[in-house]
Structure formats: C-alpha cells, structure tokens
UniProtKB/TrEMBL annotation:
This is NAD(P)-dependent oxidoreductase. InterPro entries: Epimerase_deHydtase (IPR001509), NAD(P)-bd_dom_sf (IPR036291). Belongs to the NAD(P)-dependent epimerase/dehydratase family. SUPFAM superfamilies: NAD(P)-binding Rossmann-fold domains. It comes from the Bacteria.
Amino acid sequence: MHLLVLGATGYLGAHVAEQLRTLPGARVLVAGRTLAADVTVDLAAARPRDLAAALAEIAPDAVVNCAGATGGDAVTLAEVNARGPAVLCAALREAAPGARLVHLGSAAEYGPTEPGVRVTESAATRPAGPYGATKLAGTVAVTASGLDAVVLRVGNPVGAGAPPTGLPGRVAALLADAGDDPEAALRLGDLSAHRDFVDVRDVARAAVLAATAQGPLPPVLNIGGGDARPVRDLVRALADAAGFRGRIAEAGTGGSARSAQVSWQCSDITAARDTLGWTPAHPLTASVTALWEATHRTEEARAR
C-alpha cells in the first residue's frame, strides 16, 4: 500500500507518518517543502498540473494532508489552508482519482457554540476568525471535490512536538525557561475558556484508520477528546508535569482574540466511533506529560 503524507515534518504530520510506518506492507512517502521529502511541494504556491505529475509517479492508494498554518496573516492562512487543499484535490482528480484523501481540518471551523453542548458534524459552521474561516474553505474544497475523501475536524491537539504558536507549546517553553525557580511566575491571559483537548497520538491513529478504512466514509468526522475542559486545567497539569514551583498569574485580559469569542468548544465524537471504531485513548495528563518530556529533552540537548 502506497501512502503519501503531506506536511510530515509538522506537528501532526510527524505523528501521522510515524504511525503509518507501523502498518504491515505500507510504503510511506512524504511530501513537503524540504529537500529531504520524497516529493518537494509547497501547496501554497504549487500548480495543480505540476503536483499531478508527481502524484502520477507515486500512484498513492491514500493521501493524508496534514499541511496547514495556524498563525500568520490572513493571506498566509488563505494560501496554505484554503488554496492548498484545493490544489491537492485538483491534482488528485487528474493523477489518482481513486486514492483516499484524508484531510485534517479544525474544530475552529464551528466557531462559537452553545456552552454545554457537544457539536455534531451537522452543526452550523460560523468561524470566528481568519484561521477557522480558511480551514473551513479547505474543508469545502475537499468535500466538494468528488474524491473519496474525508475531513477529520480536529479539536485542540496536545502532545510531544506542540509548536510554540499554540498555547500548550508556548506554556511548555515558558516552563522550561522557568526551571525550578520558586519565585518564577507564568504570566498568561484569561484561561477560563473551555476546549476539547485531544492527544496528538489519538489524532494520528484516527488518520491511519481513515486512510485504511474500507468503503466510503462520511465527508466530515469530529476528532476530539469528547469533553470540554477549562484551559487552566491544561496549564495546571502541564505545570505539575514540569514540577513547576512558581505561580501562575492569570490576567483577566491578554488571552487570544479567539478565546474571547469562543468561550466553549466541545465536539461530539460519536460518528468517529461508529465509523472508524475510534475513541481517544490518552487522558490529558498523559498528553501533557508527553509534551513536557519532549520539551525537556529538547532543552537539555540545546544546553549541551
């Protein structure tokens, strides 16, 4: 089975590629902007015809698109999150129309939802900012492509390799800088928003199941922890994993604009369970422990 992963050097893509490589008889190829990739491509700028030529040589049975941008200006977000999936779909229609496409979307596509409610895949999509809007545009490109495709609408992933552009990775970096100083303080914004945290290893397992599932899949599947937790729970658990002895200074303002607009986010993951046989296996404590251990190892390696 030939499997192609786009964005395999990124946070989610690295975990997806690692798990795909454990499949018996699988040949896993990676595509990205680095010269070390099997296929060098930048979806933000690639032409469909050129990408189609590369895909025709590979003849993939399944493609997992983990390429995406979480930060940057609106133009960057649109190029990567909206144009990229559209280009990929156009190239697949030309070169490998029978391949399964698994695209990683985001729960940010839903936007503000009613507190206490787990949203299903049929819920209205009302993204609150450019990130969610461009991810939704990518989802529409995939679901309207006519391909054998599924979008995994991912909650807030937590685990080893989390980038500093997101809260888990940023807090882990701050904790590494703080060390064991009992006078240290983590100065953060409002942490009262509720989020649906999911272990990055569980996200990768869902992508593997979707890539190898027999028969058609629903166009969109929620992939989350299935429970909403205050963001301060994540920060406290990460601080405990790091053995942090200082204090967490939570300001009433200073959080992200999205946190202010979307106070509650929780996905109903019933469809993923029924369709893929998937449920999250790692609790939040395991996720933050994995994140902290990876961050600590990286800091130690830099100090040598």
